[in-house]
Design a protein that fits this description.
Order of helices and strands: HEEEHEEE
Protein name: Extradiol dioxygenase
Radius of gyration: 15 Å
Pfam families: Glyoxalase
Shape: globular
InterPro entries: Glyas_Bleomycin-R_OHBP_Dase, Glyas_Fos-R_dOase_dom, VOC_core
Keywords: Dioxygenase, Oxidoreductase
Strand order of the largest sheet: 3-6-5-4
Number of helices: 2
Number of strands: 6
Helix content: 10-25%
GO molecular function, one term: dioxygenase activity
Strand content: 25-35%
């Protein structure tokens, strides 16, 4: 049966983004060969939202958005989206060295991975 999920981030600078996940986010990893790092992620959830066309988005979760932003900013992380409060959470996004964006949010709802 399905026992996990594998997330892929396509990037124009995989080495820089791998270094970011390793050195800035401090996520442990395994080397799948030739420096191809596969990182562990915190517990995950999946949500399905209505849209005109299909797409995927990665948002990392935290317990305190303001503190997490301060910690990451001190490590040189660039936030590219103003903080926005929604009924379900408080969110922003930051830039990866390869140019992509990753969302960051503090959920205001019960977390499914706590079930």
């Amino acid at each position: 049966m399905i026992n996990g999920a594998h997330v892929i981030i396509y990037t124009t600078d995989a080495d820089a983004d791998r270094a970011f996940f390793r050195d800035v986010l401090e996520y442990p990893s395994v080397d799948a060969g030739h420096g191809w790092l596969i990182f562990t992620l915190p517990p995950a959830e999946v949500a399905l939202h209505p849209a005109e066309a299909g797409s995927h988005e990665l948002l990392l979760m935290c317990d305190n958005l303001e503190q997490t932003m301060a910690d990451l900013s001190a490590r040189g992380v660039e936030f590219v989206r103003p903080v926005e409060r929604q009924p379900w959470g408080v969110l922003t996004s930051f830039r990866l060295p390869g140019g992509g964006e990753v969302g960051l949010y503090e959920p205001l709802h019960e977390r499914a991975h706590d079930l």
